[in-house]
Amino acid sequence: MRSRVSITSATDPDKLARIFETGHFDAVIHLAGLKSVSESTREPEKYHDNNVSGTLKLTAAMRAAGVKRIIFSSSAMVYGVHGAPPFREDSPIAPPNPYGITKHTVETELTRLASSDPEWSAILLRYFNPTGAHESGTIGEDPNGVPNNLMPAIAQVAVGKLDELKIFGNDYPTTDGTGIRDYIHVMDLAEGHVAALKVFAETAGRALPINLGMGKGYTVFEVVRAFERAANIRIPYRVVERRSGDVAILLADPSRAHQILNWRARHTLDEMCRDTWRWQRSNPSGYSKA
């Protein structure tokens, strides 16, 4: 049985219990959480309460309902600044900000849970940088306020909601001074979750981290140029100071996903830009009708 749960419901034990009473569930895909790196540095307690405490409430409700399979939406931010990219699942863990710390803390709790009860199985999907939209242009990213992520910020500049793109730092040790990220189309990300649902039998009693990324990185300027090609629009920008908690390079080694999930990212950066622009152009105000 499938059910969609809001972040508010995911942190309310009574609401969670009622959801699990509605029917039989084989597994939980846990996507609910706060995700802004910059906000987490300003409000770390808020991130711990929501992301960590909320997950513990969820697993308690799962245990009570006899549901012991979970796919957790983790993050490449657990790797932080130590080790050399591309990052493997056994690379050093050193999250550089409270957001990344909450993701690693939840991974640790799920690992403890699985090791204490062989009926539990957890798959920890470490997302790199999801972006893009459904190719129909009807489903896309609609952030509240000013976007924290690069692609929706570019799209809002392109559609006229923002005057310019802020580029946070151009003095990183990269080819053009801007940060490098491993971008992954949201449709590839969705396929990764479907693939993970099929391998629970092989992960009983374990919490298995798996990177979801392309294994290829792009600088901020490279993403801007790709979007300009897709939209045939010039994107005005201004370089500002680095954001606290950002790192120079986040790049995946997706080998484990290939081996265990039989999964590979298929969409290119140009396709991510094309689909993002189709969504934003068709929905200039996002999901709002105003």
Walk me through what this model shows.
The protein is an alpha/beta fold. It has a single domain (7-282), classed as 3-Layer(aba) Sandwich (Rossmann fold), CATH 3.40.50.720. It is built from ten helices and eleven strands. The chain has helices at residues 7-10, 13-20, 37-42, 44-65, 98-116, 150-159, 186-197, 220-231, 255-261, 269-282; strands spanning 28-30, 69-75, 121-127, 129-131, 165-168, 180-181, 183-185, 207-212, 218-219, 237-240, 249-250. Strands 1-2-3-8 form a four-stranded parallel β-sheet, with helices on both faces. Helix 6 packs parallel to helix 8 (220-231) and helix 8 packs across helix 10 (269-282). The protein is globular and about 55 Å long. The two termini are 35 Å apart. The model has no long low-confidence stretch (mean pLDDT 92).
Brief write-up:
This protein has ten helices and eleven strands. It is an alpha/beta fold and 290 residues long.
Q: Can you tag this structure with a few keywords?
A:
Rossmann fold; 3-stranded mixed sheet; alpha/beta; 4-stranded parallel sheet; 290 residues
* Count of alpha/pi helices: 10
CATH top level assignment: Alpha Beta
- Structural class by sheet pairing and helices: alpha/beta
**CATH architectural category:** 3-Layer(aba) Sandwich
Amount of beta strand: 5-15%
Structural Rg: 19 Å
Strand runs, count: 11
Give the termini distance in whole angstroms.
35 Å
Give the ordered list of helices and strands: HHEHHEHEEHEEEHEEHEEHH
Binned, the helix content reads 25-40%
Largest sheet: 4 strands, parallel
What is the third-level CATH name, the topology? Answer: Rossmann fold
How many domains comprise the coordinates? Answer: 1
Mean pLDDT metric: 92
Task: Label the overall shape.
Answer: globular
Largest beta sheet: strand ordering: 1-2-3-8
Low-confidence stretches: none
